[in-house]
Fold this sequence. Notes:
- With 106 residues, the protein is mostly helical.
- It folds into 2 domains: 1-49, no CATH class; 51-106.
- 84% of the residues lie in helices and 0% in strands.
- The protein contains 5 helices and no strands.
Amino acid sequence: xxxxxxxxxxxxxLEIVLELAKSLGELSGEDSYYRTxxxxxxxxxxxALGDKFILDDELAEVRARLExxxxxxxxxxxxxxxxxxxxxxxxxxxxxLERLERLKTS
Length: 106
């Protein structure tokens, strides 16, 4: 029923495939099924073919992680070494956002 509803609603095919992968992973008890499928779709359809849906999805995930990392970076409870490591993650996520934005516009 979920599949037919998604098709009838005109949802993007890649969104439907990801939803199916999530359901299959839940049914099989294989937690990595969705993640592996999503990574493969991102590599082929996002990076290689420039599909905007999957790139937008990845951008949203990176932005959400960046927001959490930024909050952690500002948190004074972390010691200096942890703060440095969080800073590396912060910079890496900023660069990844820039890279994804470039891919999306190319």
